[in-house]
Amino acid sequence: MHTFLNYYDGRDVAALSGGVFETINPTTGQPWGIFALSAAADVDAAARAADLAFNGEWGRISHTRRGRLLMQLGDRIWENAERLAALDTAQNGKIYVEVVAQIKAMRDWMYYYGGLADKIEGAVIPLDQTSVLNYTLREALGVVGVIVPWNSPIFLTVMSIAPALAAGNTVIIKPSEVTSASAIELAKLAIEAGLPKGVLNVLTGLREAGEALVAHPAVQKICFTGSDAAGRAIAARAGERLVSCTLELGGKSPNIFFEDIDLDQAETGVLAGIFAATGQTCIAGSRAYVHTSIYEALVERVVKRARAIRVGDPMASHTQMGPVSTEAQLRKDETMVQRAIDDGAELLCGGDRVTVPGCEGGFFYQPTILQNSAPSSELMQQEVFGPVLAITPFSDEDDIVAMANGTIYGLGAGIWTRDIKRAHQLARRIKAGTVWINTYRAMNYASPFGGMKASGIGRQNGIEAINQYLQTKSVWCELGETIADPFIMKV
């Protein structure tokens, strides 16, 4: 068993109540870690530390120096990628080599936002009152609460904290109770990199801790990644205090394959869209739409490949798909697949648990493909968040646009075709925050990412993200000698 405390104000701190909770390794199904069970009092203590840092040393550091410190944190993340990845894999079962690569990429995020830190500029407003100097300042908000899920803990945390810190805010991270360890280690690396204590803080716990963070009066913004139901609740609670939210929520993304696409490319595109990361990603291409002229051929190939995916220990080099992250998620996968079959869907492969030698207690589920699901069915409308694909034929372009847009979500979409004119026309018609053409799951620190409809509010990545952690102040200065008499009106 591994034991972790909260980490705020630059030190390890037990929950003030003395409470703890336990986590499970999904590969073995056995207890793995013990963490501090935070509540409102712990949030208050961390918020005071974060607020003190914001109004103290962190607030006095120059923009350029702040950016350099973020770059140094990026270096520490790179240097410790293997250790951080081992923690995440032990907690969520994600393939180790994939997690290492993902965490190493976070150095680029820190460098990008470190470079933007001293590019934050106001403007001089050209007024018709020539004796008045009017200019704007772009200032940090204060303490930012960041709540992240369990599927890609370090990746999603850095996507949120990098622009927040670059803008000059301080941060309290509330990681998922499933994957809390790496966030604590990340905060400790921030101290090693030279960030002042109180700038990056971590509180572990269950729902009570997250709710207290959202409600705390010192917290000026909430950045949340997770389900749309939780996002709605957080936005409502934050709205009561008139603080803003950036919400990256669920998805039920369409992945569309036209008749002119190469079958080898299409096969890879379908598999990468859904079975990478065991389907536990908000942008999973969980609805595959295939043109009728290639439908049978592509389905045959995809089913064959899905059956051959090597499910096993995520630390093993030969493993292609690890376990789902929690027993609750495993039950959800099973339940939604069974309901889809009961509703008339045809199971083409998978649909059952997998027993892995040496990991008999693990939460393993077969790569699963179904067809003939009704457009209004639960499987086509709701996020499974597991290795479950619904595949459907289409023939008409207008029909596929209607089907693609036919859910409450709008996070991502894939279009596979050699007809570039058609691809760009469809990209405009599909309601999604990101549209990939002849690729899938591509992401970069410089390109905005976020959802439409129930998939979220605001954008992460790119310059657009840093602006969401800033507020504008307008400053007026009369340079002339005469002060206008308020009782003499000028027209």
TrEMBL record:
All residue ranges annotated as the Aldehyde dehydrogenase domain in the record: 20-475
Ubl conjugation among keywords: no
SUPFAM superfamilies: ALDH-like (SSF53720)
Record flagged with keyword Phosphoprotein: no
Pfam families per record: Aldedh
Record key words, sorted: Oxidoreductase
Highest taxon in the source lineage: Bacteria
Active site: E248
Record Gene3D superfamilies: Aldehyde Dehydrogenase, Chain A, domain 1, Aldehyde Dehydrogenase, Chain A, domain 2
InterPro entries named in the record: Ald_DH/histidinol_DH, Ald_DH_C, Ald_DH_CS_CYS, Ald_DH_CS_GLU, Ald_DH_N, Aldehyde_DH_dom
GO molecular function, one term: oxidoreductase activity, acting on the aldehyde or oxo group of donors, NAD or NADP as acceptor
Family, similarity comment: Belongs to the aldehyde dehydrogenase family.
Protein name in the entry: Aldehyde dehydrogenase
Native source species: Paraburkholderia panacisoli
